[in-house]
Amino acid sequence: MPVNYPQIEQSLPAYARKEKGFQEQLAARKEKLWQMFLDPALELEAVREKISRAQALLKNLYCAKPVAEALLTRKALPALPAAYTLIAADGSQIVPNRHRPVQFCVLNIGMIKIMRGSGLAPEINVLSTLLEHENLFTSEGHLIGEEDVSLLRDLAERRVLFEAAISDREPIITLTDGPLDVYENVTTRRERAEQLNEVREIHAHLEARGVLSAGYIDKPGSELISRMLSIMQTPDAELGAYDDTKREIRGISDAELLEELLGAAERSAVFESVAKGEGKGSLNVHFFYLNVGSPGQPILARVEFPGWVSERPQLIDVLHSVIYHEAMVLDTHPYPYALHRAHELAVITMPEHEQVEAMLVRELEQAGARAGKRSNKDWNKGLTKK
Amino acid sequence: MSGETKILIGKLLRADNRAFVAGCRTKELIAPALGALCKVRLEEGLEIYGLIGNIIINDDSLVRQLVSGISIPTEYTEDNRHNRNLPVEISVLCVGFGQDGKIFHRLPPRPPLSLDALYLCDDAELVRFTSAGRYGYFRHILRLDDQPVEEILTAHLANARLAHAQHGRADWYTGACQELIVLLRDDYEGLMNVLNALAELE
Fold first, then answer.
1. Is position A22 within any domain?
2. What pLDDT shows up at residue A280?
3. Is A122 in CB contact (< 8 Å) with chain B?
4. Which candidate in A294, A329, A330, A347 is best for mutational testing of the B interface (most B CBs within 10 A)?
5. Residues of A with Cβ-Cβ distance to B79 under 8 angstroms
6. Residue A19 lies inside a defined structural domain of this protein
7. Which residues pair with A303 in a beta bridge?
8. Of B75, B83, B86, which to mutate for an interface test with A (greatest number of A Cβ within 10 Å)?
9. CB contact (8 A) between residue A331 and residue B69
10. Of A220, A148, A129, A133, nearest to A178 (Cα)?
11. Is residue A363 in a domain?
């Protein structure tokens, strides 16, 4: 049965009316937030000092903190280095599914290494890993889920970048899709702590090599600056009791706020991502917003990088220009070409998924091991899809 | 088995008795040219000969997006040509086959199979194939109604003329032209098209 379109259609006028009202409220909130952002009293050192105090007082905090540039900073596009190496990795996965005949997990990482200025075709690679059987289950005996597999995939991406980040064409920039740090919601599992430690170690080694690692967040929805402004509005005496759930202005992302400020190709000030509390990452992450849109049509992305990069402004310039130009290769829908290609290399299609499963079933049968049966629910769902 | 033809130019995508299509990567697209003689060796010793009648460069949504962009740095062009899985399609017209050391200008008994290798014939093999019989393979070319017959003929004859001249048979080309006039005697428009195109070779 298809969707009952007449029923949906009946609901549309009321839905659109409410949405319009909501958007009007948001516009008013955005204007209020913008005025707060323009407040001349928000001096760099005052903001830094107050956010630091909140950091010390609060158990949970996720907000922006300016590093060394004024809040209203807008930096023009610096010159592109004549030569550099850009390496991007992206992953996809087959998550174990108890409804299938065999439970297995595959991590597929696509990597592209572009030596700009060489005139050569980039180096590409796909690394496919069948997860060891003993890693398919939690210590409680349950099959691992999406979140566990995502963490393993993120770790695998970073391993690939670490291995590839050797080049005589410097600077070397590595790029991943999404936040630079890896996040997780549950911290009780020892294995996860080990994986997070490895990510930290990889970043430490990359720093030692002087490799600029960056995460690119397309259409960012976070409200880090909004939280920062909210804390600035909180009287000092009440800072220890700050509750983000009671924040007055919600729903305005940093990108929506800064699109008023940044012209095409410009970046914002550099901020530190203050992330404190359970499930928050452990890297010292800094970021700026970058307008990859055109005049009158801003498109803001967030670029995250390790805190040590901020100590060398010329490296911020490298990230700014390299990532902007990379997104401009696909200028009708700006997004870094290298990330798109890494994704294209990594993606596992359904026929490939089924092929790997068939290979595994064959191998199990040859080894005299038993392959289970597909669940009836899954089998019948398969009929619907045909 | 005939002489050395070592230049691999593609692998078979699809085929029937009259024609087949091979695919290769863009970076491999140096040797194949319109009108070139090529062949596929089948396992049982059968060799199927064909003339390249068309070469198609495929696209996809990423290439279309890149094309509409402002400028594409060299490395990104090379990525699309060398790394991405977009085969160039080489359409080949069957013009004969070889078996037990003999050349026949008839259609092959069966088509080649998918993933069979397509090789470019060298000058010696071009001379050997085109010397067999009396230009019998021309009828396969002249039968085409959806491809530029005169262009394929001219490209092929230019190659064959040169190869024969280098092998001491300068009269081969004259014989080929006379045979075309005979074959097209009832098709004035077709004959004029072919002769006009051949005039380019003079």
1. no
2. 65
3. yes
4. A329
5. 112, 114, 121-122, 124, 341
6. no
7. A216, A288
8. B75
9. yes
10. A220
11. yes
Amino acid (one-letter) located at A358:
A
Judged by CB atoms closer than 8 Å, whether chains meet at A120 and B78 is answered as: yes
Contacts of B78 in chain A (CB under 8 A): 119-122
Angstrom distances, CA of residue A144 to CA of A95, A138, A332: 8, 6, 39
Contact A111, A160 (CB under 8 A): yes
**In chain B, what are the domain boundaries?**
7-199
- Residue A386: what pLDDT? 58
Length reported for chain A: 386
8 Å CB contact of B79 and A344? no
User: Which pair of structure tokens corresponds to residue A136?
Assistant: 């398919």
CA dist A301 to A31, A78, A241, B104, Å? 21, 17, 32, 65
Tens digits of residue pLDDT in B30-51: 778 999 999 999 978 899 999 9
- For residue A223, give the amino acid letter: E
CB proximity A114 to B under 8 Å: yes
Q: Is residue A330 part of a domain?
A: no
Q: Which residue has the higher pLDDT, A198 or A12?
A: A12
- DSSP for residue B81: I
Q: Side chain identity at A151, as an amino acid letter?
A: L
With a CB cutoff of 8 Å and minimum separation 6, the contacts of A228 are A47, A51, A63, A64, A65, A271
What is the domain-level CATH number for residue A147?
Answer: 3.30.420
The whole model's pTM is what?
0.86
Question: What is the domain count for chain A?
Answer: 1
**Chain A: nearest CA to B84, how far in angstroms?**
9
Q: Do β-strands B102-104 and B88-99 pair in parallel, antiparallel, or remain unpaired?
A: antiparallel
Q: What residue type is A379 in one-letter code?
A: W
- For residue A171, say if its preceding peptide bond is cis, omega within 30 degrees of 0: yes
Residue numbers in A near B72 (CB within 8 A): 329
What is the spatial distance between Cα A233 and Cα A239, in angstroms, rounded to a whole number? 10
Q: Which of A341, A347, A349 to mutate to test the interface with B (most CBs of B within 10 A)?
A: A341
Residue ranges making up the domain that contains A142: 84-214+343-385
